[in-house]
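so the lab meeting is tmrw and i was supposed to have these ready like two days ago... anyway. pasting both below. for each one the top line is the aa sequence and the line under it is the structure tokens. i havent really looked at them closely yet so no promises
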Amino acid sequence: MEENKETANKETFISKLGRFASESAISVSKYIIGKLITSAILGIIAFLVFKLLGINLAWLLALILGLTNIVPVFGGWVGMILCALIVVFFSPIFIVYTTLTALLLQLLEQFVLLPLIVGKAVDLKPLLVICVLIIGSLVFGFWGVLLAIPIAAVIKIGYTIFLKKEKSPDKTEKNQ
């Protein structure tokens, strides 16, 4: 009898482990897709703003901002610097507009798009996404920022599968 119970516990652990691996892979994939979506949105907004401002190389600058933005936090800053360097050679008068636009888009991405889109994709609250990014950057620098959200999502999945106690129907009936 006890041997059957032990075998059942091993099977449930193995099935939980499989579920954990599967949900973790899905969550990381959703993070990458969410990050690509936010970068695309940022690139499109940048293109529209640069075009409205009359900047000649709007498509190139928007492409640079969108592509560099794939790297969390630091990518936007690198994109802003690259755009400023390009604009200085072609239209120096637009350097302030370009830098200001890139900065505002970086803030929009960090405090609105990333928490909402990526946070929803990996099932994390927007405030938690911001906190995880800050802690990741403070503790592990660049790699902490890059991996903070996927690691937080995997930790949440692990907690939900292995540690969180499921509510039994008896307790919910008594509370009503």
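ok protien two:
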Amino acid sequence: MLSREIMKQGRFRTVKWLLDILKGTWLGHPLHPILVHIPMAMWPGALIFDLLSQRQIGGNAMVRLSFYAIAFGLVAALAAVPTGLVDWSGIKKEKPAWKLGLYHMLLNSVVAILFVVNLYLRWPTFREATEVDRIPLLLSAMGTLILIGSAYLGGRMVYEYGISVARMSKKKWRKVAVAGGANLVPPE
């Protein structure tokens, strides 16, 4: 019986340690918003490189840049998924932000699938092509547009509902505010 308790405590510590990493506790800042900026920059960047290749600017360099931007964005997105899931799991289901998070996650899944297919279609020709084909270009445009919509929902979760913002207790926030010179109403 005692060994089971010790094992449970060990697993609890391991899970807490992993959750703290995914939440960004070690940074003093949520990790998800840091990671999502990478695909948010890479995938629209890939679209820009695609458009440049369509205008015969840059040749194969633009095709390769686009390919690698998509690949790098996918790797970063894979790292962002567990951090987003941990943040979302902390939202009560009855709160409006929970549903926004669900839509945000579903849209991001669609975006990731579009860019996986996009990368797959580019694979055979990216080393030699001087112009991106029309279907990968269309996938880049669709993925980027959906990504912007999903980013808007993620922003609403933070700015409208305060998701992953207040990681300190109200008492600690009051101390910070008072130290900063805020004129607070005394707590009830």
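from a quick look at the 2nd one: Residues 60-89 form the longest helix (30 residues). The chain has one domain: 29-179. will dig more after coffe
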